[in-house]
Amino acid sequence: MKSDDYRVRPGKKISLNDVPTDDARGCTKEEALVRKPQLLLHLTKLQERLYAEEKQSLLVVLQTRDAGGKDGTVKHVFTGLNPQGVNVTPFKEPTPVEQGHDFLWRVHPHTPAAGMIGIFNRSYYEDVLVTRVHGEVRTGEVERRFEQICAFEELLQSQGTRILKFHLHISKDEQKQRFQERLDNPEKQWKFSANDLSERKLWDEYTGAYEDMLRSTTTDTAPWYVIPADRKWFRNDVISRIVLETLTDMDPQFPEVTFDPKTIHLR
Length: 267
Hints:
Number of domains: 1
Keywords: Kinase, Transferase
Strand order of the largest sheet: 2-3-1-4-5
CATH superfamily: P-loop containing nucleotide triphosphate hydrolases
Order of helices and strands: HEHEHEHHEHHHEH
GO molecular function, one term: polyphosphate kinase activity
CATH topology: Rossmann fold
GO biological process, one term: polyphosphate metabolic process
Protein name: Polyphosphate kinase
Strand content: 5-15%
InterPro entries: P-loop_NTPase, Polyphosphate_phosphotransfera, PPK2-rel_1, PPK2-related
Structural class: alpha/beta
Number of helices: 9
Number of strands: 5
């Protein structure tokens, strides 16, 4: 797997209708399941070093349509990591207090501190997707928000935060199937909302909004990755490998001790 195969390049237009949602690139589910324990082992070791070093942090942004797999990604990719070093923040509809501030006001307190991995289950990108599709902001304001988002991410990076952004790309048929599975399973019915159906009717409008978002806010240092997400096991495998690749590149180190361990005599 080459992570660049899924990366959105700055300045390059993207048509999501031309990007497959179920392409496993020749990988089989069995191969992915065999690889998973080794990936998790390496992720765990790197997270421990990141936490101990306390100089860098990693922010993982997950964006997708309803039933796109955000919760499943968090559960399967990051399971087994030390909970002390991971924060997951779900961003829902803004509260009245949050609406009284700029759209990034509610986000900054949840960005990962040094040593931490932060995961945004939805994010500030909702404010250039939902708000745009529903006509709550005009085109000019959306473009300004793109610029503000890029500046915000540049600020985070200047303070040692690496940013990975994943668009979990599912098909309309797959979404329908997942909705039906929720309706058929009493333990999953709570995840279904009548609002999901009204949003589904705006599929094409959301496609256009996503394409503009990807094109306008992917950068060399805070890239977007479009992940084929119809096959959950493949989605998890690809994201795990990209996160591992990034943490390896960050190369966190255990801090040097300020004493000679050989001089310590325990009694």
